[in-house]
Amino acid sequence: MTLYWKMGALALSLGLVTTPTWAQDYNEAPALAEAVKAGKLPPVAERLPAKPEVITPVEQIGTYGGTIRRGLRGSSDHNNILRFLSPQGLTRWNPDFTEVVPNLAESWEVSDDASEYTFHLREGTKWSDGAPFTADDVLFFVNDLLTNADFYGSAPPARFVIEGQPMTAEKIDDYTVKLSFVAPYGQFLQELATPLAQEPVLWAKHYCSQFHPTYNSDVQSMVDAEGAADWADLFRRKCGDLEIPARWGNPDRPTLDPWVATDEAYTGDATRVVFERNPYFWQVDTEGNQLPYVDKVRWSVEQDAESLVLQVLAGEIDMQARHLDASKNIPVYYENQERGGYDILERLNSDANAMGFYLNLNEKDPELNKVFNSKDFRIALSLGINRDEIIDLVYLGQGEPFQIGARPGHALYNEQLGRQFTEYDPDRANELLDGLGLTERDAEGYRLLPDGKRLSFQVDVIPTLQVEWVDAMELVNEQWKALGIETTTNTVERTLYYERGDSNDFEMQVWNAPGGLDPTLSPRNVMAVHPQGSRFALQWAKWYLSGGKDGMEPSDSMKRRYDLFAEFKSEADLQKQLEIFEKIHQEAADAFEVFGVALPANKVGIKSRKLKNVPMSFPAAWMYPDPGPTLPQQYYFEK
User: Which pLDDT value is given to residue 15?
Assistant: First the structure.
């Protein structure tokens, strides 16, 4: 049993077969067989682990060949690649997002108090350049990067820290490694299955160590030649990182993914990005055919969603959901299925809200900061939103008024957190604003702050992510204007959006609100714990992640949530985990820091009718992250 929402009977049959019936008689793609004959590659049996993971295809055994066509949105869409290639971590999610299953670790043991995890790696697994993947690669991350202040600064990733202490690693043998914590960590296996927790197996020591001063005393010459700021910057340029595009920009970087970057790699000025099969990939199907089936994955690089929609209608995209699920486009997809030769996929929405509002509680301006930190002000803004109007006009009637937190039906659903202040009540909103002393108005009817300035602020929106946000903000701006509050929509590119957050140079930002079906994995809206995602209080998140060294000291309520979160992470008992998280949700409900518009409807995607082994329904979630756990390496084109 897990904490996660049971999706029901999805059309998925992926499974694991522990003992192949065909012994060591493996098959491979024709191009790889030719390379073996030419002496350019070892035989397939030597490229695979001693016991490769065996995947049962969704529909049937596939055939080799073809290129899956997809689309990227500009130079900051690296998660599009990550979602499809899937994070190849020690663990992964099963296809319906209900439990963790083995991945690069074929098995593990957990100590009774859940403070020690012993992982057995798949013996004989190789990096894409043919070098062995071993426990030394895991130790390279833990010993040389995780606690290195030059690499991670003063705060190692919180997912590897318990009670302020990062995990440690012990090599048992070449294919066995023990990861330990100073206290119980009941959620560690689930955390390892998330997209940003694959660091233990992300960096190949034999390649990446050349960019590390511990292993290369002359690394500064490489730093100078590259024009990098320091060795850590050089390392990220060459070996990548989880949250920057550089991970996909170096074709020489070894990987454990099913496809690897080519010379047409992901760079800032690329017009297309091409990945080709990894000849050393470590999975096979039930007949011993090495995966992936498809030769290449190719992303065109577009600057707007409309270009991608046109490609769908023309039959030029083979499988995609990202950037395609704007409500206004769904009828168009249904009308053009025959013309485009595609089927429409259902993606089970894990978000709590289609459009979350994040007032900056760490606002630099002292007058705005005081107003923003007033709970009554946030309640007034929420009551001043006509959600039914937005749902009808912008979301085509799909959804219902909602705030944040677990979706109805989830074990952690909190009625107050999800439903409070969702009614449209401008009269009460005005009373609350008057009660805050914001009674003076200028000639245009806008309320004035105590210093005489107009109560006015910008709302940052990324139109390339959700075009509906821009349309909704047109309505919200008018609705808040009726309360005497001036707001303007500031459309920005994604990179600038993040930069404004990092520098604490924004007043309000909009984002979807995750945590509807994965509340314990995506707690960013109820706790300031995510350095980019907890938009309502990024300086509190910095304080938390740095152990109080950086950022701003948070509220007493947030400190209580941090203490509860520490208890939660250390608790191994499922029921006790739930009880602790219920308290976190209640604190967040009482504080009312983040609000939204609507509980989102399910999302859509498309797939070519020629592309097989693609489930017609699967979860839509960043922590999943779709469609990766459906294993695109077993997709194939029907001949």
Answer: 39
Beta bridge partners of 170: 178
Question: Nearest Cα to 495, choosing from 197, 73, 1, 3?
Answer: 73
Q: What pLDDT was estimated at residue 574? A: 82
How far from 117 is each of 99, 180, 365, CA to CA, in Å?
Answer: 17, 6, 47
Q: Which of 25, 102, 20, 29 is nearest to 62 (CA)?
A: 29
d(CA 142, CA 536): 31
Cα separation, 128 vs 627, in Å, equals: 22
| Contacts of 39 by beta carbon, 8 Å cutoff, 6+ apart | none
Three-state SS for 127-169 is CCCCCECCHHHHHHHHHHHHCCHHHHCCCCCHHHEECCEECEE
**C-alpha–C-alpha distance, residues 558 and 362, integer Å:** 13
296 and 585 in contact (C-beta within 8 Å)?
no
Residues of the chain with pLDDT under 70: 1-24, 243-245
Q: Residue 589: which of 464, 439, 442, 419 has the closest Cα?
A: 419
Nearest 10 degrees: Cα torsion 321, 326, 329, 333: 20
Burial label, 29 (beta-carbon count in 10 A; 0-12, 13-18, 19+): buried
Angle at 385 between CA 382 and CA 390, to 5 degrees: 135
Token pair for 392? 């009808």
Q: Are 388 and 399 in contact (CB under 8 A)?
A: no
Q: What is residue 243's predicted lDDT score, i.e. its pLDDT? A: 63
**Cβ(460)–Cβ(356) below 8 Å:** no
Distance CA 214, CA 607 (A): 47
In angstroms, rounded to a whole number, what is the distance separating the alpha carbons of residues 221 and 38?
A: 38
User: How does DSSP classify residue 292?
Assistant: P
DSSP class of residue 105 equals: E
| Cα-based distances in Å from 581 to 185, 321, 407, 533 | 15, 31, 15, 19
- Rounded to the nearest 10°, the torsion over CA 192, 193, 197, 199 is 80
Q: Read off the pLDDT of residues 335-389 as tens digits, 9 standing for 90 and up.
A: 999 999 999 999 999 999 999 999 999 999 999 999 999 999 999 999 999 999 9
Which residue bears the tokens 């969704």?
Answer: 58
Extract the tokens encoding 494.
């994604």
> First CA to last CA across the chain, in angstroms?
41
Beta bridge partners of 281: none
- Contact by Cβ (8 Å): 393, 399: no
Residue with structure tokens 């910095």?
542
Q: Which residues pair with 441 in a beta bridge?
A: 447
Token pair 């046109």 in the structure block, residue: 310
Q: Compute the distance between CA of residue 111 and CA of residue 114 in angstroms, rounded to an integer.
A: 5
* Amino acid code (one letter) for 117: Y
- Going by the DSSP 8-state scheme, the letter that residue 248 receives in this structure is G
By CB atoms closer than 10 A (0-12, 13-18, 19+), residue 18 is: exposed
Spatial distance between the Cα atoms of 174 and 471, rounded to a whole number of angstroms = 56
Report which of 69, 200, 92, 187 is spatially closest to residue 144, judged by C-alpha positions: 200
The amino acid present at 479, given as its one-letter code, is Q
Q: Per residue in 89-141, pLDDT tens?
A: 999 999 989 899 999 999 999 999 999 999 999 999 999 999 999 999 999 99
**Residue 8: predicted pLDDT:** 32
What are the b/e assignments for 148-174, b being 16+ CB within 10 Å? Answer: beebbeebbbbbbbbeeebbbbeeeee
Sign, CA torsion 161/162/163/168 = negative
